[in-house]
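Whiteboard transcription, Tuesday session. T.W. wrote the structure tokens on the left side:
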């Protein structure tokens, strides 16, 4: 059985370009949407993403919508806590493939880390 985990030095979720995530606004409150937009840099990446080290500079203090936690996913997506693992794996696969490609090192590392 695969178990979701965040893979260091991936950062696919930090690619926030709203033109490439057209449905994201549906899941956020108006205040969260404004906050989300304020985080998008000119290159489409989060302004807090350290591209050199490929990690979040504010990880401990990142917004609720950046967290893979039962409460956040239940509120935003209606995902029951017992379904979070499979849903998070599917979300990560989709985002990693969109940002880096389905045969990328990031994709391979994610699959290995979750137990596939």
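and on the right, the sequence the group agreed on:
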């Amino acid at each position: 059985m695969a178990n979701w985990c965040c893979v260091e030095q991936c950062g696919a979720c930090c690619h926030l370009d709203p033109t490439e995530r057209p449905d994201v606004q549906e899941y956020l409150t108006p205040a969260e949407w404004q906050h989300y937009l304020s985080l998008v840099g000119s290159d489409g990446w989060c302004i807090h993403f350290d591209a050199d080290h490929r990690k979040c500079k504010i990880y401990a203090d990142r917004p609720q919508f950046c967290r893979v936690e039962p409460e956040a996913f239940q509120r935003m997506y209606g995902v029951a806590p017992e379904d979070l693992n499979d849903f998070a794996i599917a979300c990560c696969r989709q985002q990693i493939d969109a940002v880096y490609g389905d045969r990328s090192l990031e994709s391979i590392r994610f699959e290995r880390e979750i137990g596939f």
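Someone added at the bottom: The mean pLDDT is 95.
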